[in-house]
Amino acid sequence: MFSRHYFFTKRIIYQCILLLYIILIVALFLFEISKTLEYLLMIVSLTLISILNYEILLPNLFQRKKSLFYLFSILLLLFLFLGIIGFINFKIKAIDNNSISGVEKWIENISLLKFIKVFQIKYSLYYIIFICFSSILFYVGLYKQKEIEAIQLSKEKLKAELKFLKSQINPHFLFNSLNNIYSTILENPSIGAESLLKLSYMLRYILYESKENKVEISKDIEYIKSFIHLQIIKDDSIERKIKTYFSISKNIEVEPMLFIPFIENAFKHGVIDDYEEGFIDLSLVVDDRMILFQIENSLPNQKTKKYSVGGIGIENVTKRLEILYNKNFQLEIEKLEKTYKIELKINL
C-alpha cells in the first residue's frame, strides 16, 4: 500500500514539473525575457534532466552496461540544456543591444567570445552538479532497496527455517503412544480414554497451534503435561521418578514447542523406566521479567539403546532460540557423570 502511494505521488510531482517546464517554454516566446524567467527555467530544466537521469538513463543504460549510450545521452542533454539557456541569454542581450550606441555594440562584440566561454563553463558546471546529485540519489536508493530486500529475504528464510525446525517431530513417539494407549484401554478403559484425549490434544497442538508465531504459555504447558502423561502410562513405576513444578504468574505468549525438545531429551537419555535410580526434575517459572526453565535428568552408567523420542534435538532448538531471541536468552548445559542439567533463561 505504501509503495503504491509513493509511486503515485512521485508520478504527480513529475507531471507537475513537466507542466511547469512547458508553461515556461511558452512564456519564453510570448512574454518579455527577464533574469527571473531565465533562472526559473534553468532550475526546472536541470530538475527535469536529473529526473531523466534518475528514472531512465541510469537504470536502463548505465546499470545495463551501456556506458557509451549513457555518455552520449548525457552529452546530448547537456547540449540541449546549453542551447535553451543560450537562447534565453541571446534574447536578453539582443534586447540590451537595442538600447546601446554603436561604440558600445563594438565593445560588446569583442567580449562575445569571452562571454560564450564563461557561459559554457558556468552552466555546464550547474549541469554536472545536478547530474552527480541525481546519480548519488539513485545509488543510495538502490543500496537501500537492496538492503530492504536482503532483510526481507532474511526474514523469509528465518520463517522457513523455524517452520522446518518445528515440524521435525519423530513419528516413533506417535506410534509408540498409540500402542501404549491401546494396551491401556484393554487393561483400564478410563485411563486409556484419558490418554487418547491427551494424544488428541497434542496432535491438534502440533498441527494447528504450533503453526502460529506465538501461543499462550498455558497451552505449551498443557502439551508438556500431556507428553509426560503418555510417558507414564507405559510404566506406572516411573511416575514417582518424575517431579514437575509450574509457576505462571502471567499467561504470556511464547513460541510454540519451545521447551518440549529438552523434555524429550531428558526422557530419551534418562531412561528412567530401565534405570532404578533414574529421575527427571522439571521446573518452569514465568513472571513479568523472565522465563526460567530447568530440567535435570539422571544418566545411567552404561549407554542404553533406545529410540529417539524427539527429532528436533538440542542443537536445533538452540539454533531456534538464537533466531527468536538473539541475545535475550541464556542457555546453560551441565553434563556430569550421573546427571544432565539444562537451564534456560529468557528475558521478556
Distance between the termini: 32 Å
Secondary-structure element string = HHHHHHHEHEEHEEHEE
| The CATH homologous superfamily of the largest domain | Histidine kinase-like ATPase, C-terminal domain
Overall form? rod-shaped
pLDDT under 50 segments (min length 5)?
98-115, 304-311
Secondary structure: number of strands: 7
Total domains? 2
* CATH architecture title of the largest domain: 2-Layer Sandwich
What would the CATH topology of the largest domain be? Heat Shock Protein 90
For the biggest β-sheet, the strand order reads 2-4-5-7-6
Q: Roughly how many Å is the radius of gyration?
A: 38 Å
The class by helix and strand makeup works out as: alpha+beta
Structure description:
- With 348 residues, the protein is of the alpha+beta class.
- The protein folds into two domains: 2-164, no CATH class; 168-347, Heat Shock Protein 90, CATH 3.30.565.10.
- It is 66% helix and 12% strand.
- It has ten helices and seven strands.
- β4 and β5 (290-298) form a beta hairpin.
- The radius of gyration is 38 Å and the shape is rod-shaped.
